[in-house]
Design brief:
heterodimer; A: about 120 residues; mainly beta; 6-stranded mixed sheet; 4-stranded antiparallel sheet; about 55% strand; globular; B: about 120 residues; 11 strands; about 0% helix
Chain lengths: ~120, ~120
């Protein structure tokens, strides 16, 4: 069965600083990987996704993620964090579920941005 | 705006009440999902419907009863809930083709409090 680990429960960065959120996955085949963001009281918004091809994936809001098969990682990065990026971030791996797809989520990383 | 709406956004109910959560997607998708998000726990997949047929029931107690009358609408009927069922209930939809581009889009959720 697939699994996702987000080692950092909570990260605090200053506005303008760079950010890296870690994600490690376990999956037997080629993974389909996702990053979602959740603001307080809201649903999940898709930031970016990886299916194949270029291992560096660009997403919305200036985020990017790099897939590293050798390390089973899919870390999320942003060169300069804005106060509006404060939210909870979830990494997920997708597995086939019939003709739909099952997402297995990590426990999330809460990001606090200091002024 | 992700094209997935959920009503109500907040719900308080007693353990003997019966209520229903509604989800509607405007994306032309064929697969719909219910997730439960509890504090300090990863998102849990509850049910999956694909082309109106239930394809997954992730060992959910019978006090939760899903209904999918068409590909655009998904309901979660609730009865005799327990306080531990208090959580954010998220609905999602995806194309349902199972293809490499299969991506789930989430609604804003219903915050449920069971007293």
């Amino acid at each position: 069965a697939q699994s996702v680990t987000q080692p950092d429960i909570h990260i605090t960065v200053s506005e303008g600083a760079s950010l890296e959120l870690r994600c490690n996955y376990s999956y037997g085949a080629t993974p389909y990987l996702f990053w979602y963001v959740q603001s307080p009281g809201q649903g999940l918004q898709l930031l970016l996704k990886y299916f194949s091809g270029d291992t560096l994936v660009q997403g919305i809001k200036g985020f990017e993620a790099e897939f590293k098969r050798s390390q089973s990682s899919f870390n999320l990065r942003k060169p300069s964090v804005h106060w509006s990026d404060a939210a909870e971030y979830f990494c997920a791996v997708g597995a086939p579920l019939g003709s739909a797809r099952q997402l297995t989520f990590g426990s999330g990383t809460q990001l606090t941005v200091l002024p | 705006e992700t094209g997935v709406t959920q009503t109500p956004r907040h719900l308080v109910m007693g353990m003997t009440n019966k209520k229903s959560l509604k989800c509607e997607q405007h994306l032309g998708h064929n697969a719909m999902y219910w997730y439960k998000q509890s504090a300090k726990k990863p998102l849990e997949l509850m049910f999956v419907y694909n082309f109106k047929e239930q394809t997954e029931n992730n060992s959910v107690p019978s006090r939760f009863s899903p209904e999918c009358p068409n590909s655009s609408h998904l309901f979660l009927h609730l009865h005799t809930l327990q306080p531990e069922d208090s959580a954010l209930y998220l609905c999602a939809s995806s194309q349902g083709s199972g293809g490499r581009g299969e991506t789930q889009y989430f609604g804003p959720g219903t915050r449920l409090l069971v007293l």
